[in-house]
Amino acid sequence: MSYPIKERALILAVESSCDETSVAVVENGRKILSNVVASQILSHKRFGGVVPEVASRHHVEQITICMETALIESGVSPKDLSAVAVTYGPGLVGALLIGISAAKAFAWANDLPLIPVDHMAGHIYAANFVTPLKFPSMALLVSGGHTELVYIETEGSYKIIGQTRDDAAGEAYDKVGRVLGLSYPSGKQLDEMAYLGQDTFHFPRAMIKEANFDFSFSGLKSSFINMVHNSEQRGEKLNPNDLAASFQQSVIEVLTVKTLHACQKYPVKQLIIAGGVAANQGLRAKMKHDFSEKLPETELIFPPINLCGDNGAMIGAAAFVEARKGHFAGGDLNAEPGSSFSEEF
Description:
- It contains 10 helices and 10 strands.
- Helix 6 (187-196) packs across helix 8 (240-265) and helix 8 (240-265) packs parallel to helix 9 (281-294).
- The longest helix is centred in the C-terminal third of the chain and has 26 residues, at 240-265.
- The chain is an alpha/beta fold.
- 41% of the residues lie in helices and 17% in strands.
- It folds into 2 domains: 10-125 and 307-324, ATPase, nucleotide binding domain (Nucleotidyltransferase, domain 5, 2-Layer Sandwich), CATH 3.30.420.40; 132-302, Nucleotidyltransferase, domain 5 (2-Layer Sandwich), CATH 3.30.420.
- The protein has helices spanning 41-45, 52-74, 93-109, 119-125, 169-179, 187-196, 218-233, 240-265, 281-294, 312-324, and strands at residues 10-15, 20-27, 31-39, 83-89, 114-118, 137-142, 147-152, 159-163, 270-274, 299-301.
- The mean pLDDT is 94.
- Strands 3-2-1-4-5 form a 5-stranded mixed sheet, with helices on both faces. A 5-stranded mixed sheet has the order 8-7-6-9-10, with helices on both faces.
- The chain is globular, with a radius of gyration of 20 Å.
């Protein structure tokens, strides 16, 4: 199945993999004409994390509203569009199915081709709004559900060379934040607290000296929780800013050292830091410092803060690449909640 790509390709992109309902209109994979995001944070905050059933219900309520708003804000009508793109995985199965159903219905009603997009590829191509990507490149994907090092030899070609063996970095942030009594999501608050504290507790740096590029944050999380609980039992009060700084320093050091080694083994033109944790200011500062000293020839790219979280624009950017590769789907497109780069669509 193939479709011609117009000189001015306008893609309506739908993202609903977790707790953000987002629809965007993107031109030629580089220009954002609209990017509507309906957040569910307030609904999930009281539970301390994302509740899949609650997320699905919100997607049902918001998806058509977001699609209509994205078209209005972009000044584009359905007849102007070149294609419809949608995230098919990974993510929460119920949430994914709502976005897929809406995208398939819209594509069928307007006789438009449908482009399936991997959610993590979307995070990578959010960097395309900063500068055109050059290959080969490396991507460090850090979010609440993923921590991966991905080697991108050519456009749209992904190879996972390292990933977490247990908790993702963002997941560890949320669990540690809960122990400190912070509201969900706690990543930004911990980052701000870390700036005010000192690394006085020296938490473990798991797997930092191992030759592979895998990560592990479960031990760090357990070490943090045990220290806090033991101090409470002894009646001691620990400085929360120092706790945050010590935890963050451990995470950032592991991420930076592993990524630096990966880029030394796989020489690349660019390093892309993407995903929700890419908004972390401590991580940004450490990466910029270390790479400017040790690999100054590697261009470091961070997507804009507002494009680090889940959004439709990043799906539109990745969709343009998939369309040029001839990757389209039919009405039988289904959700793949556990999909991976290692599985070719």
